[in-house]
Design a protein that fits this description.
Length: 186
């Protein structure tokens, strides 16, 4: 007889959901499929997450330590950001919740909203503040942060969502770093 451990069960469900949402489109993932893979009843998914939408949002919760990239001189911002970006993109293939959100954002309004909110809070706003604090006026900091944000999202969409090859990580990092730096410098 196994003992009940709600936190461990919830984590097992989340782990399976992350795997399945990363490998398949939102529509292809079922509550029953996730429950079967986690070895639980589908009712537990409803109890813990409220259903498929809640499970999706929990499975795609994203955390990125962006503060590490915003320390230091602005003249090295491009290289710091590029190193962080390439490290994330080169990580566990298909299991990055940010990538899952990007892929699902065209299919699910809540995924698009979650992605936009995440990027605003964790990328755009800290970058805008960093650029402002590095000596730019607010309007210039806003414009440059918006350009960097759009550039990185565009490259991410092209290379990851549309499943193009990332290419050589060192070359990608150098190109991203130089381009981000030009955008930061104006």
């Amino acid at each position: 007889m196994t003992s009940r451990n709600a936190p461990a069960t919830k984590q097992r469900i989340l782990d399976q959901a992350k795997r399945q949402f990363a490998q398949h489109a939102y529509a292809a993932v079922t509550v029953k499929g996730v429950a079967d893979a986690a070895g639980v009843s589908p009712n537990l998914i409803t109890r813990y997450f409220g259903g498929k939408d809640g499970l999706f949002l929990a499975a795609t919760r994203v955390e990125i330590p962006v503060a590490d990239s915003f320390g230091g001189d602005r003249s090295e911002l491009g290289s710091r950001l590029a190193a962080s970006i390439v490290r994330r993109w080169s990580g566990a293939p298909g299991e990055d919740p940010l990538l899952v959100l990007q892929r699902a954002s065209g299919e699910r309004p809540e995924a698009a909203e979650a992605l936009a909110a995440f990027l605003d809070t964790n990328s755009f706003e800290p970058l805008r503040r960093y650029l402002r604090d590095s000596g730019l006026d607010d309007a210039d900091a806003h414009a440059r942060a918006a350009a960097i944000d759009a550039f990185v999202l565009g490259v991410s969409t092209r290379r990851r969502v549309l499943r193009s090859e990332l290419g050589d990580p060192a070359e990608l990092e150098a190109w991203l770093g130089a381009t981000i730096q030009r955008l930061a410098d104006g």
